[in-house]
Amino acid sequence: MMVARALRPPSTLLLLLLLCVLLALLSPTRAIYCDEDDCYDLLGVSQTANASEIKKAYYKLSLKYHPDKNPDPESRKLFVKVANAYEILKDEATREQYDYAIAHPEEVFYNAARYYHAYYGHKTDPRLVLVGLLFVVSAFQYLNQWSRYNQAISMVKKTPAYKNRLRALELERSGGVVNKKKNNKQMDKKVEEELSNELELQIHGSEKPSVWKLIGVQILLLPYTLGKISFWRLCWFWRYQIKKAPYSWNDACYLTQTSLKLPIDAWWNIDETVKNNLVHKHLWKKDNMERYQAEIRKESKRRR
Q1: Angle subtended at Cα 228 by Cα 242 and Cα 278, rounded to the nearest 5 degrees
Q2: What is the pTM of this model?
């Protein structure tokens, strides 16, 4: 076992690490900027030269070595080096990085990382990236919701209950008279499609997609939503804590629903008589809730 482990080839990560160390040892860090040359020497300026002097030196050399001015192949190569040196030194950020690399040649990996981040890292506005990401996520979310909704509708349309509702709607539209003669199946499908559009199918867990429920839209409307919630809480505090007003029907329903920990859809699907009975129990009060829970447990034991 130990021999087998010893004979294993080194991992890819280790090989890459060794390669980086080897490259770092073979050439100085500043070589990634202007190869083996010094950027300042290529432009013929000192390291203390200001931006105006660097620009003037570049224009002077470009007139001398530009391929349009000088057809010599070696001149073209030199012009490429001069242009690269100017691109590095004309920008304050990259010049500062280059100066740091000259002063600290031992910090190989740090200098290399700064260089590649500056030249190959994305320079897009992070805000635009965030907006684009939200748009892509919202698009996938919308398509996924439509797929789930269509799949659920397709399954519901195969059930006998749906076909019975469709048949009842057809009888209602025809005044109770059904045409027994079917000309062709295409017409039947067309009539079925028209009738199915009139049936509102509400499927829990696969509701019809809405733009307002997309994560991107909700994030964009977050300030409005937070403001609305804050205003609602302020009105609630003023009405029921300061003025001691009795709860309105809707607010009493909200308190009852939250006390029972029911989803909003489940609450509104409860029979109106049962709903009225629950609201009048004032279950948002601790004693009433404990009494109600004791009644439920007693009823459950009796049914057993």
Answers
A1: 65
A2: 0.45
Q: Would you state the CATH architecture of domain 28-120?
A: Orthogonal Bundle (1.10)
Smallest Cα–Cα separation from 142: which of 77, 209, 91?
Answer: 209
pLDDT in tens, 265-286: 788 888 889 899 999 999 999 9
Tell the residue number behind the tokens 């980086």, with chain if given: 20
Q: Which residue has the tokens 């010094």?
A: 38
Where are the chain's structural domains? 28-120, 126-211, 221-303
Question: Integer distance in angstroms from the first to the last C-alpha of the chain?
Answer: 63
For Cα atoms 282, 288, 294, give the angle at the middle one, nearest 5 degrees: 135
Whether the CB-CB separation of 149 and 208 falls below 8 Å is answered with: yes
Q: What is the DSSP string of the chain?
A: -HHHHHHSPPPHHHHHHHHHHHHHHHS-TTHHHHTTS-HHHHHT--TT--HHHHHHHHHHHHHHH-TTT---HHHHHHHHHHHHHHHHHHSHHHHHHHHHHHH-TT-HHHHHHHHHHHHHS--S-HHHHHHHHHHHHHHHHHHHHHHHHHHHHHHHTTSHHHHHHHHHHHHHHTTT--------HHHHHHHHHHHHHHS----TTSPPP-GGGSHHHHHHTHHHHHHHHHHHHHHHIIIIIIS-PPPPHHHHHHHHHHHHT--HHHHHTS-HHHHHHHHHTTTTSHHHHHHHHHHHHHHHHHH-
In this prediction, residue 120 carries a pLDDT of: 62
pLDDT for 62-110, tens place per residue?
888 888 888 888 888 889 999 999 988 998 888 998 898 888 887 877 8
List CB contacts of 33: < 8 A, sequence separation 6 or more.
Answer: 39, 88, 98, 101, 115
Instruction: Report d(CA 136, CA 133) in Å as an integer.
Output: 5
Q: Looking at this protein, which amino acid is placed at residue 300?
A: S
